Amino acid sequence: MARLTGKVALVTGAGQGVGQGIAFALAAEGAKLAVTGRTLAKCEASRDEIIKRGGEAIAIACDVKNLESMQSCVDQSVAELGGLNILVNNAQEVPLGSLMDVTDDAFEAGWQSGPQATMRLMKLCYPHLKGDGSIINLASSAAKRWDMTGYGAYAAVKDAIRSLTRAAACEWGPDNIRTNVIL
Predict the structure, then answer these.
(1) Which position among 126, 151, 154, 172 bears the catalytic label?
(2) Which of 61, 92, 149, 158 pairs as cysteine with 40 (C-beta 3.0–4.6 A)?
(3) Per-residue pLDDT of the chain (183 residues; tens, 9 = 90+)
(4) Interstrand relation of 32-37 and 86-89 (parallel, antiparallel or unpaired)
């Protein structure tokens, strides 16, 4: 029996890469999926593959740098899939490069798509997750590198996600919301 039968998961950045793999794995365990990302066509391809494999999924265009887009995404996920049990914050624009080379715009995009989006989505999903919820945030071990050359801005935004995750685990644990971070 699939361990996640009856559960609903929302995965950001699920149109490709790691997010797509997470969505496929959750669906294989029986979860219904809201496959979200900036590019609807990529999300639709992930959705179609989940359905082809026998799962249930919807595709939603969602810009994690836009609060209204995130609110609409959560509302649509809950309405169409009947609730929400799992949130996976995977989407992230990556500000890589030396500190002198990372532009303000790239760092701001990393901040908005990373820690700010993570916090916003956790708060938007909180009422739906209370009682039986799980949040999985993706961060990075980059902040633990011996040589941080080229990784300073990236590690900064990812470590902020790690801190927000730890706070949510402490604050929302009593509400039966498990919150974990994957580095």
Answers:
(1) 154
(2) 61
(3) 689 999 999 999 999 999 999 999 999 999 999 999 999 999 999 999 999 999 999 999 999 999 999 999 999 999 999 999 999 999 999 999 999 999 999 999 999 999 999 999 999 999 999 999 999 999 999 888 889 999 999 999 999 999 999 999 999 999 999 999 999
(4) unpaired
The pTM for the full model equals 0.96
Any idea of the CA torsion for 11, 90, 117, 164, to the nearest 10 degrees? Answer: 110
Strands (E), 24-166: 32-37, 57-61, 86-89, 133-138
Rounded Cα distance between 121 and 125, Å, is 6
Structure-token pair, residue 20: 């797509």
Structural contact between residues 14 and 44, judged by C-beta atoms closer than 8 angstroms: no
Q: Which amino acid is at 75?
A: D
